[in-house]
Each structure stands twice: as C-alpha cells, then as structure tokens.
Amino acid sequence: MNTPLPIAVLISGNGSNLQAIIDQQLRGNLQYEIKVVISNQQSAFGIQRAQKVNIPVRIISHQNFESREDFDDAISITLQEYHVEFIVLAGFMRLLSQKFVRQWKHKIINIHPSLLPAFPGLNAPEQALKHGVKVTGCTVFFVDEGIDTGCILLQEVVPVESNDTVDSLRRRIQKKEHQILPKAIHLIANQRYVIENRIVHLLNHQS
Ligand code: GRF
C-alpha cells in the first residue's frame, strides 16, 4: 500500500463535503489523509466537524491581510508546516491569487454544483433552475487562474425535477458531490490520470 496522500481541505462554511472526505478517510479504504483543515471563517461549521475527529484546524481570516497574496502566503506557511502535497477546496469562498495557483498547478481541486462549463460562479443551482435545464450536476476540476475554468476531473449528472426549489435541487446535487469528491481525491492519490492540454484522461477508472 502507498503512503496516503497528505492533503489540506480549505473551507468557509458548513463543510458537508469535508464531512464526506473525513468519513471516507475514516473508513480507511481511500489513499489520502487530511493533515489540516483551513477555514477563512471563524464561524464555519466545518471547523467542528474536523475537531470532532481530531484533525488540526487553522482559522486564517482573510480580513487580517491587506492583499490576496499576503493571505495566500499565510496559507502557504500552514501548508508547509503540515507537509501538505495536495489541496482540496470544499466550499472555500475566496479566490486564490495567481501566484498561489501557479505554484500549486494541478495540485488544487475544487467542487462546483453544476456541470461546468455551464453555470460557473455563485448560485449555480439557482442559475440552472432559472435557465430551465432538465439536468444539471456537479464537477470536480483542477483550479486554474480563472473562475471555475480549470480542467475537469469528474462530473456527475443530477436531474432537475419540475417541482424543484433551489434548496431541493441544491440538496440533490450535494448528495452527488459527497460521492465524487472523495472519489476524485482517491484518483489523484493513486495517480490514475494524465492531463494532456486541458483534457484529463482517467486511467483504469475504478473506485
Ligand atoms: C458545495 O455545494 C460546493 O459545490 C460549493 O460550495 C458548497 C459547499 O458546501 N463549492 P459544504 O460547505 O461542503 O456543505
């Protein structure tokens, strides 16, 4: 068995995706280990989820820094301290600086509640509902300098029901997010992909 991939999970809020990553780690059949959870919000519920299972937590408030770069430098120091090799954004509501993203090229993933490139940015389930699409979903992608533009690792389709509200649709999408995000980290930890231009080729794709 390989050494588990040391990851950091960055959050800003509820942390249900963090919980899914924690649960899979505790089940012990995936090849990653959360070394530290970083939150830019003191009130994020995800902090309690991590503390409950004794995962180290750092609260780094962006408000304490003059520039995006300074904030990102503080994150970098924590990542070094915990020997992190891969970063997972799980509801982290801050844009990272170009410098940071370049330093971590193809070593940061994010999860987005739509089938990108449809409905990037905020409120994706609401955008999907207003547009009248019949299916939407979620996407795990590698973070690049743009907003939700990075190359796509995994996607899962979610149907839109005629009586859906934004909340019911968001909940249905999140259920799928909780499945594909740990799976994506597992793929990464096992190096079961190759990136060519912006196409992510999955090698021997199995869970
Ligand atoms: C998720 O829906 C994710 O797609 C988006 O932010 C939300 C975070 O939810 N990036 P949670 O904090 O993981 O519950």
Topology:
Blueprint (H helix, E strand, L loop, with lengths): L4 E7 L4 H12 L4 E8 L6 H7 L4 E3 L8 H14 L4 E4 L8 H6 L4 E5 L11 H8 L3 E8 L9 E8 L6 H24 L3 E4 L2 E4 L5
Parallel strand pairs: 1-2, 1-4, 2-3, 4-5
Antiparallel strand pairs: 5-6, 6-7, 8-9
This protein binds 5-O-phosphono-beta-D-ribofuranosylamine.
Which short descriptors sum up this protein?
binds 5-O-phosphono-beta-D-ribofuranosylamine; globular; alpha/beta; about 210 residues; 9 strands; 6 helices
Number of strand elements = 9
Present as ligands are: 5-O-phosphono-beta-D-ribofuranosylamine
Distance between the termini: 15 Å
Number of helical stretches of at least 4 residues:
6
The helix content is 25-40%
Q: Structural class, judged by helices and strands?
A: alpha/beta
Q: Main beta sheet: strand number and arrangement?
A: 7 strands, mixed
Shape: globular
Give me the Rg, rounded: 16 Å
Strand content: 15-25%
Order of helices and strands: EHEHEHEHEHEEHEE
Strand adjacency order, main sheet: 3-2-1-4-5-6-7
